[in-house]
TrEMBL record:
SUPFAM superfamilies: (Trans)glycosidases (SSF51445)
Chain ranges of the Glycoside-hydrolase family GH114 TIM-barrel domain: 58-271
Alphabetical UniProt keywords: Signal
Protein name: Endo alpha-1,4 polygalactosaminidase
Signal peptide annotation: 1-30
Start and end residues of each stretch annotated as Disordered: 32-57
Compositional bias of kind Low complexity: 32-45
PANTHER family: ALPHA-1,4 POLYGALACTOSAMINIDASE, PUTATIVE (AFU_ORTHOLOGUE AFUA_3G07890)-RELATED, ALPHA-GALACTOSIDASE
Organism: Streptomyces caelestis
């Protein structure tokens, strides 16, 4: 989910774990940033690309007027909805900007929606206006996703949060396998890195630790109710941040574990506006 719209939202979990109710819902020159001793980012062997470190504070805002007064070093925002000027302002304030965009689902409200052929568009993913993509068709999807990542680069984003990276676990309309998903996710990581941006693994906990070397951080929604919050530990052990969001549990139900596991955890609304409670 990288674009929040009005309406109720389901718990974003695989069909095999919980019913997905149909209610609703990534290279630029690197901007100056913190050094290796700053949790907002550490230099990687790739040069100017930086990865957020465990414990980095952050904000995830996908709806409402962007509140840049939230004093955190990392802001994760919708890549389509925000301009180069917005990213530049975050940089002037000493912040890093993550470009959130869907890479595994077609969204009928995006400006490039008509560029996706019907042959790669499958079943709905539980969010209004969204349908799963046939991630096996990299011949079709690679140039489309490359253009989206070009957009992130041109706007000056430092990193990418690709969404819908675990479709193989859902009913997509396509016979997707774990190998298909891993191949696609690694392709997205390569495309982001080629454009000078860091990139995160979103929600695909079952395949960890295989993708750890390919990604610069991880992001997960609602691991606590499923006792899965230890799954991204290999990222933390590799000195890479794990950005974590809960929607339903109060902070006293998950923050102690989050601190122990060195997760960067937030309580957010299902429509992630500026409101947040951090652990």
């Amino acid at each position: 989910m990288c674009a929040a719209r009005s309406g109720d939202r389901p718990v974003r979990r695989p069909f095999l774990l919980a019913p997905l109710l149909v209610l609703l819902p990534a290279a630029c020159t690197a901007a100056p940033g913190p050094g290796a001793d700053d949790p907002a980012g550490a230099k990687t062997p790739a040069g100017d690309r930086r990865r957020p470190r465990p414990g980095a504070d952050w904000q995830w805002q996908l709806s409402g007027r962007l509140d840049t007064s939230v004093d955190v070093p990392v802001h994760d925002i919708d890549g389509f909805d925000h301009s180069k000027g917005t990213v530049a302002k975050l940089h002037r304030d000493g912040r890093k900007a993550i470009c959130c965009l869907s890479t595994g689902a077609w969204e009928d409200f995006r400006p490039d929606a008509d560029d996706f052929p019907a042959s790669v568009i499958g079943r709905g993913n539980g969010w209004e206006g969204e349908r799963r993509l046939d991630i096996r068709r990299t011949d079709v999807l690679e140039p489309l996703m490359a253009r989206r990542l070009d957009m992130c680069r041109e706007k000056g984003f430092d990193a990418v949060e690709p969404d819908d990276m675990d479709g193989y676990r859902d009913r997509t309309g396509f016979p997707l396998t774990a190998d298909d998903q891993l191949r696609c996710n690694r392709l997205l990581a390569r495309l982001a890195h080629e454009r000078g941006m860091a990139v995160g693994l979103k929600n695909d906990l079952d395949q960890i630790p295989e993708p750890v070397d390919d990604f610069d951080f991880a992001a997960d929604e609602q691991c606590a109710p499923y006792d899965e919050c230890a799954e991204p530990t290999p990222f933390v052990e590799a000195d890479k941040a794990v950005f974590h969001v809960e929607y339903e549990l109060t902070t006293d139900r998950f923050c102690a574990d989050s601190r122990r596991l060195e997760l960067s955890s937030l309580l957010k609304k299902y429509e992630p506006d500026a409101w947040r409670r951090a652990c």
